[in-house]
Specification:
single chain, alpha+beta, 2 domains, 5-stranded antiparallel β-sheet, 5 strands, 66% helix, 13% strand
Length: 267
């Protein structure tokens, strides 16, 4: 019995030692296996990480290229827009130039026409002045002194060679306009005229350029001016018509109405 117990006591430490060794081997094996797994995982991680990094790098390069492309496209569009704008401005200036050239041609033609008219106008002014002068001296001699002074002033202006032709023409037209205005309307004024070689103060009725009548202050005698003889002639009572009423209307002493005046005596 004691021998069996001693044998068991001797074997037990050996078993424990063996078990301990087995445990250590198992732990060592597990550690080695764990180390191998970690190393393998790290290798796979490196293999996986490399394509990812390359993919990220390629994506960044693609983004950079796309940005450069957009920038280049924007610059190209801007340059193209500037080109179109420059072409538009060039076409616009070409049209303006063509328009100006046409205006220059037209102005040159106008200048040539003006020069021709100027050569023709200067002698024509003298013709018109002569006609105007003849009209004044053959017309009814109303406001005669004033009209002669106006003609003399015009003659003096037309004889001034330093006066521009346009100014001489303007002054001639001004006098002609005044003479034309005399042909409209009517007026009454008092003046001294010679009747039968005797001076007499009378009322004078001027009807445009149609006729010129006189009436004595007592309203008993009437007469008319003869253009041919340049003298005053009396009008018979039966041919006086409404001269008295015409005088009163022109002097605003009567309401205006249609009157009968002896224009027939002018024949």
């Amino acid at each position: 019995m004691m021998t069996s117990r001693m044998t068991l006591n001797a074997v037990l430490p050996c078993c424990l030692l063996l078990l301990s060794n087995l445990t250590m081997e198992s732990d060592t094996k597990q550690v080695n296996e764990q180390f191998s797994v970690d190393a393998l995982a790290e290798q796979w991680a490196e293999k996986i990480q490399q394509p990812i990094q390359q993919s990220v790098q390629l994506g960044q390069e693609a983004a950079d290229w796309q940005q450069q492309k957009m920038h280049a496209l924007s610059e190209q569009q801007q340059s193209l827009g500037e080109l179109y704008w420059t072409e538009y401005q060039l076409q616009k200036k070409q049209k303006n130039l063509q328009s100006l050239q046409a205006e220059v041609v037209q102005l040159q033609q106008d200048i040539d026409t003006i020069n021709v008219l100027k050569q023709q106008l200067e002698p024509q002014l003298e013709v018109w002045y002569a006609m105007l002068e003849q009209q004044v001296f053959s017309d009814l001699p109303f406001d005669f002194d004033e009209r002669k002074r106006r003609l003399a002033f015009l003659r003096s202006a037309m004889d001034k060679s330093e006066l521009p032709l346009a100014e001489r023409f303007r002054r001639l037209l001004e006098v002609i306009s005044i003479e034309v205005a005399y042909g409209y309307g009517q007026q009454v004024n008092q003046d001294v005229i010679v009747i039968d070689e005797k001076p007499m103060q009378v009322n004078l009725l001027l009807l445009g350029r149609l006729a010129w009548f006189y009436m004595t202050p007592d309203e008993q005698q009437f007469g008319w001016f003869d253009r041919k003889t340049r003298q005053w002639n009396s009008i018979p009572i039966n041919e006086q018509g409404d001269l008295r009423l015409a005088m009163a209307i022109t002097m605003n002493k009567q309401i205006a109405e249609i009157v009968n005046v002896p224009l027939g005596v002018q024949r």
